[in-house]
Design brief:
391 residues; alpha+beta; 6-stranded mixed beta sheet; 10 helices; elongated; binds adenosine-5'-diphosphate
Length: 391
């Protein structure tokens, strides 16, 4: 097991695309870190540089203290699981699992036929090597619960079982770190959720340092000890799932994490009769005490107010202490069983989503009072990527 350290790492592809731009990240031994971001943000490139599949244009990568910039992938002592986990179709599960170990044998017959024939010690080593491979395959199969599948061919397995074998193939090498590149995107939604929990359980069990790439923010939040949100080749925030959600460093992170996404209102801060207030046309929402202190210096400036769907209520009784109301027209309701997503609009903001209790009766086209829990509001500097002003 190992620490993985990226120091000011960049990747410029031939043709000039700067896919990764000055990324520094310290992944602790045993940590599960998820790189997440929209398509093209550079997360796969970052992972592939750690794996050694992509050359590093600038910076340094260390695995277990050793600089690996110029070390071949096979000598980095890491294992990678891809989205397309091509298993060898003509081999059974056991053979698929042991394949990489068999390739790496030091004392096989074909390595040194004369040595094998001429030396008892060589043959003894060869036998021990086989036994070690057998032990690792058995251990891996047991941890993954696939012992009963060892004799089957890949085509005789379900999607989930295949995925498990693919993970097993990485585990069996007992690498210093696991790298996962969107390993679940080919599975259907239900299986994805199951496998997600399984990967997390597996990590708890084997505790190998894991770096996992996904574009799915929910997958990132549920899996990662730490979530690294990237955009345009740059790390925006590297923090616990809780912090990324509750204390996003900027508007981009705030909008990327969470479904449905955070609602944004563009307006300015004013002093309204001694109360620090967010104003956007007719919309006037007084700030909660905890924000007023820190944001006073922005009076008169343009800011962006962020409110997550669950901080907006159509039932005033459900809102927290610091309530602020505004009127909106309901354009669409999406019942989800336990809750309903309500799409609403005001004159200046056509896309507002509130998440309400499923028992709240609301009709489309009805004009209602929406109640904002301002204790849970976020404030950002103006612009698409404005910094969080309250941090
Ligand atoms: P992600 O995994 O976040 O979707 P990638 O790391 O695959 O993003 O790509 C980051 C950027 O680098 C994108 O703009 C992509 O088009 C570009 N890119 C990726 N691979 C290559 C390549 N082999 N040659 C040139 N550009 C590439």
């Amino acid at each position: 097991m190992a620490q993985v350290l990226l120091e000011d790492v960049s990747k410029v592809y031939p043709g000039g695309v700067r896919a990764v731009n000055g990324v520094s990240l310290n992944i602790e031994d045993r940590e599960f870190v998820v790189l997440v971001g929209p398509s093209g943000c550079g997360k796969s490139t970052a992972l592939r540089m750690i794996a050694g599949l992509e050359e590093i244009s600038a910076g340094t990568i260390r695995i277990a203290g050793r600089v690996v910039n110029d070390i071949a992938p096979k000598d980095r002592d890491i294992a990678m699981v891809f989205q397309n986990y091509a298993l060898y179709p003509h081999m059974n599960v056991s053979q698929n699992l042991s394949f990489s170990l068999r390739l790496r044998r030091k004392f096989g017959f074909w390595r040194n036929p004369l040595g094998w024939m001429g030396s008892g010690e060589y043959r003894q080593r060869s036998v021990e090597e086989w036994q070690e491979i057998g032990r690792r395959v058995a251990d891996t199969a047991r941890v993954l619960g696939i012992e009963h599948l060892l004799a089957r061919r890949p085509r005789e397995l379900s999607g989930g079982q295949r995925q498990r074998v693919a993970v097993g193939r990485a585990m069996v090498r007992e690498p210093k770190a696991f790298l996962f590149d969107e390993p679940l995107s080919n599975l259907d939604a239900k299986l994805r959720v199951e496998m997600r929990a399984e990967i997390k359980r597996l990590h708890r069990q084997v505790q190998t340092t894991t770096i996992y790439v996904t574009h799915d923010q929910e997958e990132a939040m549920t899996l990662g000890d730490r979530v690294v949100v990237m955009k345009d080749g740059v790390i925006q925030q590297a923090a616990s799932p809780f912090d990324v959600y509750e204390r996003p460093v900027n508007r981009f992170v705030a909008g990327f994490v969470g479904t449905p996404p955070m609602n944004f209102f563009e307006g300015r801060l004013i002093d309204s009769g001694g109360l620090l207030t967010f104003e956007d046309g007719d919309l006037r929402l007084a700030l909660a005490m905890e924000h007023a202190g820190r944001l006073g210096r922005y009076i008169g400036q343009n800011v962006v107010l962020g409110l997550r769907p669950e901080s907006l209520h159509a039932d005033p009784a459900a809102a927290g202490a610091a309530k602020a109301m505004f009127r909106a027209r309901i354009v669409l309701t999406e019942p989800l069983g336990d809750r309903t997503d309500v799409h609403a609009q005001t004159e200046r903001n056509p896309h507002i989503i509130c998440r309400v209790d499923a028992r709240t009766r609301l009709r489309e086209q009805e004009v209602v009072e929406i109640c904002a829990d301002m204790t849970r509001a976020h404030f950002f500097a103006a612009g698409a990527e404005g910094a969080n002003l309250a941090l």
